[in-house]
């Protein structure tokens, strides 16, 4: 009984923090559903993908994959390139997730860009059990994503309007996160600028096929060299604050 | 692509996405403290990666011929300005996308 109350309290406390993601995911998921429907994959496919993949950018890339010829190594390589950033998300929530118990597997699975930024950026209110608080943030976010993609898929099959340019939704999403991070990172914008600069450079020099991997290597080297200046104090008291 | 091939593709995406998300937990679990270098990377890389993803999402834009990346430039300027001003995810993303769609369908229609 007390356990149930505690979970309800955590859910209630988590919900308001997820409102920005609610609106964002409904719209992004909706766009995804429309585009997926556009290549002839109905709502059950949208449901399947949003449930088992649950990675916004990658699901948009997956639409192009499904529309093309079957190429398993290509799919794996694309997934690794597009989602490589997730490696680093885990790193910064290791401490936060360390005593999640049975929830841990789902917490790791559901670590999307938006969930990551929420989990990193907020601490649960006084008196709220933190593990359940973070769990409900993750669960609510995925429920918005699934709902949005289902709506887009179903409504997209009923409506016919010109969706040319709707894929800009992905750029807009990244730009918004970038701006938010820019403001949070205080005076130090070098990592953010390096991300843009090295990727542009790699794209110009090596073309669309391999530029992501090359850019990531360049960023790793560059940021490693900067460690003595940017790293400095790594306090062990609590992690994940930017 | 057949239904089976589509399902295999989706399964591969799901599995490898999960493996990437889970890797740090396998590598640095068992209560061991995370090395300072790894911790440092975890704190700076998200900034760099978001910059990278913006470029990634624009990789097909051709700036040497009409419309010279203008629709993208205008829409991004809109998103940045509105986000800095209102700090509202929905207004920025929805507004930016609708603006972009209008631009490529009317003003800059090929």
Oligomer: heterodimer
Helix and strand string of chain A, N-terminal first?
Answer: HHHHHHHHHHH
Q: How many angstroms separate the termini of chain A?
A: 37 Å
Separate helix tally of chain A: 11
Q: Helix tally of chain B?
A: 4
Give the largest chain-chain interface (CB within 8 Å).
A-B, 99 and 72 residues
Report the strand count of chain A.
Answer: 0
What's the end-to-end separation of chain B, in Å? Answer: 31 Å
Determine the strand fraction of chain B and express it as a percent band: under 5%
List the secondary-structure elements of chain B in sequence, H or E. HHHH
- Report the major sheet of chain B: none
CA radius of gyration of chain B is 20 Å
**Total beta strands of chain B:** 0
Structural class of chain B: mainly alpha
Gyration radius of chain A (Cα, Å) is 19 Å
Q: Strand percentage of chain A, roughly?
A: under 5%
Catalogue the unreliable spans of chain B. none
What's the overall geometry of chain B?
extended
Mean pLDDT, all residues of chain A: 87
Model description:
The complex is a heterodimer of chains A (242) and B (110). Chain A is mainly α and 242 residues long. Chain A has eleven helices and no strands. In chain A, helix 3 (56-67) runs antiparallel to helix 4. The radius of gyration of chain A is 19 Å and the shape is globular. By secondary structure, chain B is mainly alpha-helical. Chain B contains four helices and no strands. Helix content of chain B is 75%, strand content 0%. The mean pLDDT of chain B is 89. At the A-B interface, helix 1, helix 2, helix 3, helix 4 and helix 5 of A face helix 1, helix 2, helix 3 and helix 4 of B.
């Amino acid at each position: 009984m007390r356990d149930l109350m505690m979970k309800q309290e955590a859910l209630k406390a988590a919900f308001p923090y997820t409102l920005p993601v609610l609106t964002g995911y409904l719209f992004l998921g909706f766009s995804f559903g429309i585009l997926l429907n556009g290549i002839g994959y109905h709502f059950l496919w949208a449901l399947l993908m949003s449930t088992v993949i649950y990675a916004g950018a990658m699901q948009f890339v997956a639409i192009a994959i499904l529309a093309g010829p079957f190429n398993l190594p290509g799919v794996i390589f694309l997934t690794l390139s597009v989602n490589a950033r997730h490696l680093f998300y885990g790193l910064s929530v290791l401490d936060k997730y360390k005593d999640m118990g049975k929830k841990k597997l789902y917490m790791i699975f559901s670590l999307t860009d938006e969930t990551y930024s929420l989990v990193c950026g907020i601490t649960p209110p006084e008196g709220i059990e933190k593990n359940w608080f973070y769990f409900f943030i993750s669960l609510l976010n995925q429920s918005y994503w699934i709902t949005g993609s289902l709506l887009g898929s179903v409504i997209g099959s009923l409506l016919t309007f010109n969706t040319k340019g709707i894929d800009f939704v992905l750029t807009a999403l990244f730009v918004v996160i970038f701006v938010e991070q820019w403001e949070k990172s205080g005076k130090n914008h070098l990592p953010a600028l390096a991300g843009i600069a090295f990727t542009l450079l790699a794209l110009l020099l090596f073309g669309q096929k391999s530029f992501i991997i090359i850019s990531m290597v360049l960023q790793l080297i560059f940021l490693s060299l900067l460690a003595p200046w940017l790293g400095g104090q790594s306090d062990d008291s609590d992690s994940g604050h930017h | 692509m057949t239904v089976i091939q589509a399902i295999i593709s989706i399964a591969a995406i799901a599995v490898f996405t999960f493996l990437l998300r889970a890797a740090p937990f396998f590598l640095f679990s068992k209560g061991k403290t995370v090395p300072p270098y790894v911790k440092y990377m975890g704190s700076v890389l998200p900034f760099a990666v978001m910059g990278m993803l913006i470029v990634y999402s624009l990789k097909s834009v051709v700036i040497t011929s009409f419309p010279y990346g203008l629709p993208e430039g205008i829409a991004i300027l809109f998103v940045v300005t509105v986000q800095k001003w209102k700090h509202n995810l929905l207004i920025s993303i929805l507004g930016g996308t609708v603006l972009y769609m209008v631009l490529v369908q009317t003003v800059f229609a090929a």
